Amino acid sequence: MNVFGVDIGGSGIKGAPVDLERGALAEERHKVLTPQPATPDGVAGCVAEVVAHFGWTGPVGVTFPGVVTGSTVRTAANVDKSWIGVDAGALIGDRIGGLPVTVLNDADAAGVAEMTFGAGRGRKGTVILLTLGTGIGSAVFVDGRLVPNTELGHLELKGHDAETRASTRAKEDEDLSWEHWAKKRLNKYLAHVEMLFSPELFIIGGGVSRKADRFLPLIEGIRAKIVPAELQNNAGIVGAGMAAAQTV
């Protein structure tokens, strides 16, 4: 069975049909740049463009980089603040011709995919997936059950939102070396999260997971096992597709 997933990010919006039996993309994903500013109308238009690229006519799952309850956006750290209070499901559904739309937090979607098909498959205890990109998203699981909308990227780290210090955008904006970013920024963030939650496993997702060998060996003093996401940057699309399948 194939369903459709769209992953809205701070820099790009990507989507593809998802093969739910394999937990993988059924076709090569299509990506467009996130409009700046990332207003509701602008982003919804880009989602419609991605869906139309495949001529899709069934249910659509959509991730959003913020807290989502029902299909209403509650926070919007890395997109335009005018999203707050918007019924994203209704807005996007209208723009894609009335197709059924399911909306969920982006890291939660990636986490569900990784726990089902990837690095967290079969794991009990506390597992935390962190998506490193424009910001830092988080998905927390206890014995395989999701605790939704945790948003651990906004924990305070040295007086700042953690994601402004330890995200890959911070690395790029400040032109930090892999070693400096891993040892001085990401390591301290992981230690802080571990102190609060004592997970057995960290899964590191987002686009940077493709380069895990450049920074994970530099992390020290963390008791939990740390592994890259197996689905890498497609996890959000797969998780969005899984959410859409629940409406079928």
UniProtKB/TrEMBL annotation:
GO terms for molecular function: polyphosphate-glucose phosphotransferase activity. Keywords: Kinase, Transferase. Its EC number is 2.7.1.63. The keyword Lipoprotein does not apply. Belongs to the ROK (NagC/XylR) family. NCBIfam families: PolPhglucPhase. Gene3D superfamilies: 3.30.420.40. It holds the Pfam family ROK. The keyword Glycosyltransferase does not apply. This is Polyphosphate glucokinase.
